[in-house]
Design a protein that fits this description.
Strand content: under 5%
Number of helices: 23
Length: about 450
């Protein structure tokens, strides 16, 4: 499925093929020359990428300083300074401050704390982080201080996951490690990487792509099972893999992936299922019954039209199904077998565009897929500009900071949501073009002696 290791001087450098990077490189002397790869520098592509990811996550932590000074207590400060954290909110809301088991059915506990709305792997990770926090601050520590420590512990863990995801993406294509820079240096990673649990599933998906590129179906299934236990959306990667295998006339090859994935998902879900089945079912059911929320196009439609929230939720999921069916048709009818990352991006984009809820942090779902599906900084930045704008406008709108002289504070927020949708559609359009016209795909073009029938896996 993959070729042997490529010599260092065969690495495809972005300054030699990406017009935007090449133009920017003129500031430091122009694109990389053909002999640069032959030098034995300690700064290998992987090490540079890991430094970029570490800097992105560190910058993300520093940018949340206003909330840290306010003990991550939520409120207006977290909204105006764009540091509202789902991680911090779960500490008090779900009883992690008293190290409560997330799926406990104890009536007294459930009277004080809400059942976790997070998937099982996230619940386990949060409970583990709460245990580490207890060890660091003790059982009698001030609640506000404990919340800050908990948020910091989780941020460090998420930074580690970002590094693992970067390493995995860099290893997917040996000749193109720099494609992972689209993930490691992403603005979306800076603004959203430390404020939600999404990087758990994102790192698992990045590992899934690496394992499949290395022809390791069992490991692929295990990582995909972990990802699905951290968020429902990675199951779409399994669907994308099935479509690619059908095109290759190898549908049976999905069996080891599906079986090990289901087994892994079951093992991770087992503690929650055994100790609190009712709470476990409640958490999973909430995933599909969420009303239109801030940041989604449906929230704008519900606010601006007579469309009811419950109707919008049903219509949203119906449109997601239709979108996925359209992707199936595109993949099966194409002249060339598309790459796995391309198909997965098209499927996941349908959920982020048409799903009833789209918190700004959900942009992370597309990040590892976009970095591999369309490794062109122009397109990545166009898409992320819309996401960052929506992230900012959503927070400022909720804080009441967008009221212009005419008093229509929702107008700017609605425009930001529309811009986000348009920018995501741009990314979808260029990936769809690459699927339909493989000669436009930068990854395929960089393959030696590429022809229309040449197979590129991820």
């Amino acid at each position: 499925m993959t070729s042997g290791p490529a010599p260092a001087d065969e690495h495809v450098h972005p300054t030699s093929e990406d017009p935007l990077v090449a133009a920017v490189s003129e500031v430091v002397g122009g694109p990389v020359g053909p002999r640069v790869g032959r030098s034995r520098s300690w700064w290998t592509p992987l090490r540079v990428l890991l430094v970029l990811a570490a800097l992105a996550m560190a910058l993300g932590m520093v940018s949340k300083g206003a909330c840290a000074a306010d003990d991550f207590g939520g409120g207006a400060t977290s909204l105006t300074h764009l540091c509202s954290s789902e991680v911090a909110a779960s500490f008090d809301r779900e009883g992690l401050d008293v190290l409560a088991w997330p799926w406990s059915g104890d009536p007294g506990l459930r009277e004080r704390y809400a059942v976790t709305t997070q998937p099982p792997l996230v619940g386990l990770a949060a409970w583990g982080a709460a245990g580490v926090t207890r060890l660091l601050v003790g059982g009698d520590a001030d609640a506000d201080h404990a919340r800050v420590v908990f948020t910091s512990v989780v941020a460090v863990g998420l930074a580690g996951l970002a590094l693992l995801a970067t390493a995995a993406l860099a290893g997917v294509r040996r000749r193109r490690p720099w494609d992972a820079a689209g993930f490691a240096a992403a603005p979306v990673l800076v603004v959203a990487g430390t404020v939600s649990w999404d990087l758990l599933a994102v790192a698992a998906v990045a590992g899934t792509l690496w394992a499949w590129a290395r022809d390791r179906p069992v490991l692929t299934g295990m990582l995909l099972g972990l990802g699905t236990a951290a968020g429902v959306w990675p199951v779409l990667v399994l669907g994308a893999l099935l479509l690619v295998l059908v095109r290759r006339h190898e549908p049976a090859s999905i069996l080891p992936v599906a079986v090990t994935g289901l087994a892994t998902w079951g093992l991770v879900n087992a503690p929650a299922f055994v100790t609190g089945r009712a709470q476990w079912e409640q958490a999973w059911a909430g995933t599909f019954s969420r009303a239109p929320g801030e940041g989604s196009a449906w929230s704008v439609l519900v606010a601006a039209t007579p469309l009811g929230a419950s109707t919008a939720t049903v219509v949203a999921w119906l449109l997601v199904v239709l979108w996925c069916l359209a992707v199936v048709v595109v993949v099966l009818a194409g002249a060339t077998i598309p790459r796995l990352s391309q198909v997965a991006l098209l499927l996941v984009a349908g959920v982020t565009l048409l799903g009833p809820a789209h918190p700004p942090t959900h942009a992370l779902w597309l990040l590892p897929l976009a970095a591999l599906a369309r490794p062109r900084w122009r397109d990545l930045l166009v898409w992320q500009a819309g996401e960052v704008l929506s992230f900012a406008m959503t927070g400022w709108w909720l804080a009441g900071e967008l009221a212009p002289g005419a008093g229509d504070e929702a107008g700017a927020y609605w425009i930001a949501v529309a811009v986000r949708v348009a920018c995501t559609l741009w990314l979808v359009a260029v990936v769809l073009r690459d699927v339909r016209r493989p000669a436009a795909d930068p990854v395929r073009r960089s393959q030696p002696n590429w022809t229309r029938s040449h197979q590129v896996v991820v």
